[in-house]
Amino acid sequence: MEEEGGNGGSRKRVRPSDEEEKEGETGDGMSLDENETTKLVASDEMELRISQILDKIESFTQTVSNLLDSGKTMLKELSNEFEERLIMIHKEHVEKWQEEIKELRLLDASNEETTSLLHNARILIQNPNIDA
To answer: Residues 32, 24: contact at Cβ < 8 Å?
Structure first.
């Protein structure tokens, strides 16, 4: 492709084949001047289509950005809820186990007291001569 010079524009035109240059016409019977005008119109149309595609890209990029932001927010909220729930579960289990430990200590103290009473009773039974 060649860039058309002269007027400082940045319009592009297709380089005609050697045969077309010799004949001065394109393959469809149009003169080079008519073909160049058609290409300029098509070029404006292409620029419009490209602009529309760029607008779609920008819109899609904004949509993706918004989705990422809302996804991050949702995940952060979910993470916070998960953390709070997990801490609550941990706290509940620790409290339950601490209560079990307390009950076991009370049971152990009661067993020790019962064992001591049984031991004393056994001594009294085995030695009836001891005055209680």
So the answer is: yes
Instruction: Give the three-state DSSP class for 75.
Output: helix
Q: Is the pTM of this model over 0.85?
A: no
Q: Which two tokens stand for residue 42?
A: 């098509």
Tell me which DSSP letter residue 25 carries.
Answer: B
Q: Angle CA(9)–CA(12)–CA(17) in degrees, nearest 5?
A: 135
Question: Under a CB-based contact definition with an 8 Å cutoff, are residues 48 and 56 in contact?
Answer: no
Rounded Cα gap, residues 20 and 10, in angstroms: 23
Per-residue pLDDT of the chain (132 residues; tens, 9 = 90+): 444 444 444 445 445 555 444 545 555 555 556 555 555 566 888 889 999 999 999 999 999 999 999 999 999 999 999 999 999 999 999 999 999 999 999 999 999 999 999 999 999 898 877 665
Instruction: Match 């996804």 to its residue by tokens.
Output: 71
